[in-house]
Design brief:
448 residues; D-Maltodextrin-Binding Protein, domain 2; five-stranded mixed β-sheet; globular
């Protein structure tokens, strides 16, 4: 079949070309690669780490918002990043999975087998806690976590991560004898819900910006359940040797950020709409901020809602992100088409194989994207465009494969018989009769 042969040749050429696109980012000299998770404090700390290294003349590469702990930790182990801000409690509970390891020395002994190390304590603890609206807590006489057991009627809205953590809701409820059935909420939505009195109790981080803003009372952990979450730098153990200038600069951050400073910076981002880079710059260069404030006619004022919305929508890296998005879409849809269309043509005459292939492609659609990305990052040993491209390609196969089979099914047996009666071979029939009729349906699958 000449048509199938040409499609396979095109697919092979595509597969040879894609790695050159994905790996076309080989810098002349290795920068310090700084990562972050997907929440405000992690974004800010990543900017502080990167700008601290830049001030020492070190070239940096900032990779913000990589994902949850598992993804960022995987990126660190695979060498995709060199350092990111982490918390001692998270290292113990989620990375080495041994809550008894509490000191930096203990953590580093356990991390050594992974080629990682923790150090440079930043100066603040950002642990978990439960909080209530202050007026409600005072009315019910609730000051401690143990007081909650006397009020089973309270409505709990807890983040999904907290409910699933080893040191999260299950252990807390057992320690304090709590019988409530909390609902899982996004952390940001939980703040809105408690502010609108839709829930009564939520989990918070002790450096959250909205605690004072919403008038919340942090309940005392009177049975000492929550471990300490001291902020440190988690880094590859060869970093001090491979990048001594960067490491020397990062040492200056030790003990430099106290809890009040972190709360203030979180508030600047979440309540005042300041950019993460600007927040980090003002923290590292407070004199520059003071000089700007002292200029006549330069009185600071909070941005309007419209200005804040525009600032968030049109960020400095908007063009780069749009280009990256378009590239991923084109590559993934193109790769999926080169896989699914030939597969649909070959499988269409075989009903059982066609049903099996469609079933497998359908199962891929049910896998959550974050779970698939976590597996791909671990399997491929890289983060960024490569695993994203594989995931998007996998998700794109089903509609194209399904529509290819559906389009070919629309060709009437009479047309096929007429073509064969005219002396057409099966490849000619596919090229000149079946594919043209099926093309509108196949194109609809590409658009999907």
């Amino acid at each position: 079949m000449k048509l199938a042969h040409r499609l396979l040749v095109a697919l092979a050429a595509w597969c040879l070309w894609m790695p050159s696109v994905l790996l076309a980012q080989s810098p002349q000299s290795e920068p310090l690669r700084v990562g972050s998770k997907r929440f405000t404090e992690s974004y800010i700390l990543a900017e502080i780490v990167a700008q601290t290294a830049q001030q020492a003349g070190v070239r940096t590469q900032l990779r913000q918002g990589l994902g949850n702990t598992a993804i960022v930790h995987g990126a660190l182990r695979s060498g995709q990043i060199d350092v990111y801000a982490e918390y001692t409690g998270t290292i113990a509970q989620e990375i080495i999975k041994d809550a008894s390891q509490t000191t930096l020395a203990d953590l580093n002994r356990a991390l050594a087998s992974q080629g990682l190390a923790a150090g440079v304590p930043l100066g603040f603890n950002n642990g978990y806690a439960l909080a209530m609206r202050r007026d409600l807590a005072q009315r019910l006489g609730i000051m401690r976590l143990s007081d909650l057991a006397q009020h089973p009627e309270l409505r709990y809205g807890l983040s999904n991560e907290f409910m699933g953590r080893a040191d999260g809701w299950a252990g807390l409820a057992q320690r304090y004898g709590l019988k409530a059935r909390p609902q899982g909420l996004d952390h940001g939505l939980a703040y809105e819900a408690i502010g609108q009195q839709h829930i009564d109790v939520m989990d918070i981080y002790t450096t959250d910006a909205k605690i004072d803003h919403l008038g919340l009372l942090v309940l005392q952990d009177d049975k000492d359940y929550f471990p300490h979450y001291d902020a440190v730098l988690l880094y590859r153990s060869d970093l001090p040797q491979s990048q001594p200038a960067a490491w020397a600069a990062l040492q200056s951050l030790q003990g430099r950020i106290d809890a009040s400073a972190m709360i203030r910076m979180n508030a600047q981002a979440e309540l005042q709409g300041m950019g993460f880079a600007q927040i980090a710059q003002e923290f590292l260069q407070p004199n520059a901020k003071a000089d700007a404030a002292a200029r006549p006619g330069q009185a600071a004022k909070s941005p309007s809602f419209g200005a804040l919305l525009w600032q968030r929508l049109v960020a400095d890296d908007l063009g780069r992100l749009v280009g990256q998005h378009l590239l991923l879409v084109l590559l993934s849809v193109g790769a999926a088409a080169l896989i699914a269309i030939p597969a649909g043509i070959l499988l269409f005459p075989h009903a059982r194989l066609r049903a099996l292939a469609l079933g497998v492609a359908g199962v891929m659609q049910t896998i959550p994207s974050l779970a698939l990305l976590a597996v791909l990052i671990a399997a491929m040993g890289v983060i960024g465009r490569a695993p994203a491209l594989v995931a998007l390609t996998a998700y794109s196969i089903l509609p194209i494969l399904s529509n290819t089979c559906a389009g070919l099914a629309e060709v009437s047996p009479g047309l096929r018989n007429a073509g064969l009666a005219l002396g057409m071979t099966k490849p000619q029939l596919m090229r000149w009769v079946e594919l043209p009729i099926a093309m509108p349906t196949i194109t609809a699958g590409l658009r999907t």
